[in-house]
Amino acid sequence: MSDSGNSTSAPLVVDRPLTANSRRDFLRILGLGSAVVLLPSMFAGCSDTTATARSATEAVTLDLTTDFGVLNYAYALEQLEAAFYEEALKHIATGCTASELHALLSIGQHEVVHREFLKAALGSNAIPTLQVDFSSLDLTKRDVVFQTAKMFEDTGVAAYNGAGRLIHTPLYLVLAGKIVSVEARHAATIRDILNPKSMSFAGDDVVNAMGLDQAFSPSMVLPLVDPFIVTPISA
Amino acid sequence: MNNTTVLGGIDPEIADQLLTRRDALRQGASTSTKVVTGLALASVPIALAALAKDAFAALPADIVGVLNFALTLEYLESSFYNVGVGTSGLIPPSDMAVFQQIQKHENAHVAFLLAALGADAVGKPTFDFTAGGMFPDVFSNYATFQAVSQAFEDTGVRAYKGQATNLMSQPDILTAALQIHSVEARHAAEVRRLRGLDGWINGTMGNLPAAVNAAVYGPGNPASDYPAEDNTTQAGINLQTLVAYGSDPLSASFDEPLDKATVLAIAGPFIVA
Q: Is the pTM of this model over 0.95?
């Protein structure tokens, strides 16, 4: 978890539940006494230092021939998305309407739920907390936040669509399906905010002439998110 | 990525390449990272279209059943939007671009599934979009049209999701079905927003007539596999133990699948024969 201990950004309600969450999660994991506790990154998420100070800097390798590898691939993407919204909600200052902030807050919460669910489901098989870096983005600017959100959501949809065929266990495919349509709802919402009531929500740039959304292999997805992930990831 | 290749217009050499790749996948190599990452998934739609007539001619009966189920729903949606978009004065100009885009996709889905199914495709049913009088003004009252649209789209998302595991033996078809599934979710989100709702489903919030809302967002059969949309337990994990959020964001974070029989029960009143 990122440095969500910053409680000074009062308008950003998300800080409160996220902070409570990281505390609770920390205690919960400790209480369980599972092998997860042994991962240094788990402690990093609950410290008062920033995520970038303590997160994994050692390379993460995803073995996509296994379901755990595919789920960790999803977990990596959800970590990135959740961290982006947490960071954006701390910085975004002006130009957002109440309904736009509501969308950012809600989507950010959904991504945190996805992240925490995958972490819990993977248990000791989970990869560490990734070190992320959004410093290249001016997140005080509405347009930067929403354009980046659009990229993350569209990429998330394409990533889950492409990863479905890599999953061996029906239960996991169902879970991925439950998440990907929510990512698609996010993508449509962000696109509708950027270009209201236009064809953009399912634009011709993401839905082809056969009416199919994008499906990207991991080798196509990872370069797209690489600028924002410090931790080396290979698949 | 935006594949504009039309069905049948595939370069034979490319089609051969795709066939070779597909054969490789078929021979159990689909779990090989090397093969998977080497296969540009952007080409999958082309592959599916190119192979529709040949390789899929011998689709297993259960796969044909799933695709015909999907085709029936796509017939329903495409016919609905073809009438709605074509009805003068129904959709305000401000919203027309949205419904024209949805209409385009649903017609494309019908064409895609027809190509994949070939001679095995079911015919188009006769529809009654008033659902036996439940929505008498569906094509004269924009609010009613939007409500039916939302019911179709959110049900479509649940229907495709419910069939995903039945397509695991056919990776190319599974991928295509997932690609349709997320388009339906984009549609659903946009229509919900036009109606003043969030694009995602908080609890069972749909603002549809009570009986319709209960069916569209309620549980399937069995409810243990097909819970209502307000479900907040996933894979045995109570999401409330993970984060200190209210139930709305927890339920909205996951969409729920629906079984075929329950979907057909929802669609039934719109299908005359």
A: no
